[in-house]
User: Fold this.
Amino acid sequence: MNAPALAPILDVKDLCFAHPGQPALAAGWSASIGAGITLLYGDTGSGKSTLLRLMAGRLPAEGRLTLAGARLDAEPEVYLRNVFFCDPTTDALDQVSAVACTASLTAGDASFSEAAWRTLIEGFSLTPHLDKPMYMLSTGSRRKVWLAAALASGRALTLLDEPTGGLDAASIRFLWRAFARLAEGPDRAIVVASAARIDSVPLSGSIELPLRSTSHVGPCAQ
Assistant:
């Protein structure tokens, strides 16, 4: 007998978006994203980063996005409090230490786990770099600071853009192990945008670009 369907963590209805003068990235796209790790797959330049920004509420679009019961158009502050998203191209936090960067990224996150963060910091070999300003860190180390904050977050939706970019092999293996643990959680959706397939962790679903009109990307019924 099939298990009862779980309510999606992120529900997208009739999303429409296009950059000026370009073909539509989404034209009436609907999707249900459930708990676990969802792969957002597409070639470089296919629109993965833009779709993450749309899910994060960082870009205006037509349609309805509902996260953990809060609609972006009706309760934007509640919606945004439930999202962890860090643009890997930003330089807004370059002048502060890794610790201060983490504090900024996790501000207002009541379920942030300090213990999980410290485990991630050790696993990513970041301890010697915590008091350094972010601009002094390598691309990989900056990304690991963001990843540690993201994975220790208690927010309902975590959006990660090419998380392995700039990481050494040991850090990538550690990241896969962290993902595997998080994949078992019942109340967090983690969307990982990648130009490569992911076969190192169990996935609850996948989204492929270009988008079809409707997708169901929640957990599979057992």
Remarks:
- Helices lie at 48-55, 76-81, 98-105, 114-123, 139-151, 169-182.
- The first strand starts at residue 10 and ends at 17.
